[in-house]
Amino acid sequence: xxxxxxxxxxxxxxxxxxxxxxxxxxxxxxxxxxxxxxxxxxxxxxxxxxxxxxxxxxxxxxxxxxxxxxxxxxxxxxxxxxxxxxxxxxxxxxxxxxxxxxxxxxxxxxxxxxxxxxxxxxxxxxxxxxxxxxxxxxxxxxxxxxxxxxxxxxxxxxxxxxxxxxxxxxxxxxxxxxxxxxxxxxxxxxxxxxxxxxxxxxxxxxxxxxxxxxxxxxxxxxxxxxxxxxxxxxxxxxxxxxxxxxxxxxxxxxxxxxxxxxxxxxxxxxxxxxxxxxxxxxxxxxxxxxxxxxxxxxxxxxxxxxxxxxxxxxxxxxxxxxxxxxxxxxxxxxxxxxxxxxxxxxxxxxxxxxxxxxxxxxxxxxxxxxxxxxxxxxxxxxxxxxxxxxxxxxxxxxxxxxxxxxxxxxxxxxxxxxxxxxxxxxxxxxxxxxxxxxxxxxxxxxxxxxxxxxxxxxxxxxxxxxxxxxxxxxxxxxxxxxxxxxxxxxxxxxxxxxxxxxxxxxxxxxxxxxxxxxxxxxxxxxxxxxxxxxxxxxxxxxxxxxxxxxxxxxxxxxxxxxxxxxxxxxxxxxxxxxxxxxxxxxxxxxxxxxxxxxxxxxxxxxxxxxxxxxxxxxxxxx
Length: 622
Description:
Elements: E1 5-8, E2 16-19, H1 22-26, E3 32-36, E4 42-49, E5 52-59, E6 66-67, E7 78-81, E8 86-91, E9 100-105, E10 112-113, E11 122-126, E12 134-139, E13 148-153, E14 159-161, E15 169-174, E16 180-187, E17 191-196, E18 205-211, E19 216-221, E20 228-232, E21 240-245, E22 250-256, E23 265-269, E24 274-280, E25 287-290, H2 293-305, E26 310-316, E27 322-328, E28 335-340, E29 345-351, E30 364-370, E31 376-382, E32 395-399, H3 415-422, E33 426-430, H4 440-444, H5 453-467, E34 471-481, H6 483-494, E35 501-505, H7 511-516, H8 526-532, H9 540-545, E36 559-564, H10 572-583, E37 589-594, H11 604-621
Parallel strand pairs: 32-33, 32-34, 34-35, 35-36, 36-37
Antiparallel strand pairs: 1-2, 3-4, 4-5, 5-6, 7-8, 8-9, 9-10, 11-12, 12-13, 13-14, 15-16, 16-17, 17-18, 19-20, 20-21, 21-22, 23-24, 24-25, 26-27, 27-28, 28-29, 30-31, 31-33
């Protein structure tokens, strides 16, 4: 194990750095996921117990906390306050993502399972704040492929089926009184439909049918429950915020649009019954637009407490005067603060990782480059300590494309990035075409482009690094998880001379078998996936050409492959067949399989094993 000491950095001319123990980067946070009770009297959080993240609660201002859960097999996956006295939490089994719902009182009493059904996945639709003692959930208990809405009585555990999903409903929406008013559905395989009703006594009726490429997303009802604030790209490239009549999906007013970015989220005050603001994810700084002067003034007051820092409101009590504020950045996991708006008082609650020294961490530099066909790609370059993009020369580089693929990288702290930079590598992340938040054209430019134009965007980024002499052309690795794992395999398959080695973490290797092993609740979306990724019949030649496992003979560099045995999204066979194909040719492959994991390693000891293996692998081949 590497100990904290000072050594010369591999690939860094004349530099020195403090080697930080691997475990410091990947150990569980000391405390995280803070929330405040609706009445503002208690604070909850997640913290390690027996190396698993468990649920704790303490009274505001008190020094001692009470542990509410004692999970030792699997960390609590997430939680919420149901009311002033009871919390709900989720957990799955071995990474199968079939989340079960449990509840416990804030004094630790009455711990019970609400949806402890094998093979059934539970999700929260509405906390039903205005209906004490109840929450609304969705489960695929009746049919594994579809989710039905239920009202759950938290005292008795009684489940009441509210509507039976006919097979194509994908999402439910409630109004401010907790009534089911709208639903999204898939029709004809690739078309999406919004169905609506004025009251729960009426049947749902279709009000808008569009191709799935058109987005109309109801975000929140207006205070009178008549209209909705909606995010839409209908008739436009970027997703904009509009006021919409849900009974016809007629746009009543354009509220906000950004020339470069999609609308990402809104802020709504339940107490004041008012839309406060709208937000976009920018290259570095978030884009904020306020509709409410009071919300803007609150932001300004908080800025005076955290000058020059990145922060956001993590939670509020029902009165919206007691706030939990998360303060972070690119060189810290962050900290939580308690803010009392009535007194303008700020109190630090906890650092997520107090053992991480900000001065030891490195900056994440936002950069851009242009692809061969003219797209501007927003990317992030992180460098070993003491270097800048202007001074970095001939470094070993880890190229790190994100998963999804319809997701995106953002500016901020990354344990992986900091770990790799501390070991002397530059890390390069890019929002290749298909990354979300950049508009319809950029998204659709990725369809049926796995291993093709999407991969070209990654390759063009590598060439950009080489042209600026930042990268040592002989020492470039590619590493990613999920789709990023696919991109790593595609990189060493289709550009075999570009990379010195690759790390594939729960990645797709064969587009045909990937389509055959998706979770049952993805099957209603299969026709859409055929348009996005490829149709196994109509696009057979393309999919075969873009499946790395079918072209393993092109790979000539070493690989490290990691896989969870219970992965419901990327079946273990994706890794098995890739490893078998390479080993049959004598290509060196290290293969890590964890029997108690799914799509990514969540248990701390498994993370340690993976990153230790990655450290050895990169040191040997990069």
